[in-house]
Specification:
Largest sheet: none
Radius of gyration: 20 Å
Number of domains: 1
Number of strands: 0
Oligomer: single chain
Number of helices: 3
Strand content: under 5%
Structural class: mainly alpha
Helix content: 55-70%
Length: 109
C-alpha cells in the first residue's frame, strides 16, 4: 500500500471518528439521567418503560465500541502489518481497505 493510499484511508477514518464523537455527545445527552416530567396518562414518560432511552443507550454503546476500533486502526495505519491479511499474510487490496479500514483479512480468507 502506498503512502498516498494510507493517507486516503487515514482521512476517511478521521472523518468517521469526528462523526462518531458528535454522535456520542448527542447520545450521551439523550441517555442522561435527567428524567422527563412524567405524565400519568403517558406510559412512555416513565423510567421503567422508555424504549427510546434503551435504544439510545445501545446506540451509544455501539458508537463507543466503533470509536475504540477506529482509534486502533488510526494508530496502526502506518505499521508494516496494516493492510496485510492475518490469515494468508498477503496484502489486502486497497479498495477493500478503503471500504473497510478495519479489515484484517482479505476477501478469500
Amino acid at each position: 500500500m502506498t503512502q498516498a493510499e494510507r493517507e486516503e484511508i487515514r482521512k476517511r477514518v478521521e472523518n468517521e471518528i469526528k462523526t462518531l464523537r458528535e454522535s456520542i455527545d448527542t447520545l450521551t445527552d439523550l441517555t442522561s439521567d435527567d428524567e422527563v416530567e412524567p405524565d400519568v396518562n403517558d406510559w412512555f414518560t416513565t423510567k421503567e418503560s422508555n424504549p427510546g432511552k434503551d435504544i439510545n443507550e445501545l446506540a451509544l454503546s455501539k458508537a463507543k465500541q466503533r470509536l475504540r476500533i477506529l482509534n486502533v486502526v488510526l494508530n496502526r495505519i502506518d505499521s508494516k502489518d496494516y493492510g496485510i491479511c492475518t490469515v494468508c499474510k498477503k496484502p489486502i487490496p486497497f479498495e477493500r481497505m478503503k471500504a473497510v479500514p478495519t479489515a484484517t483479512r482479505c476477501i478469500k480468507c
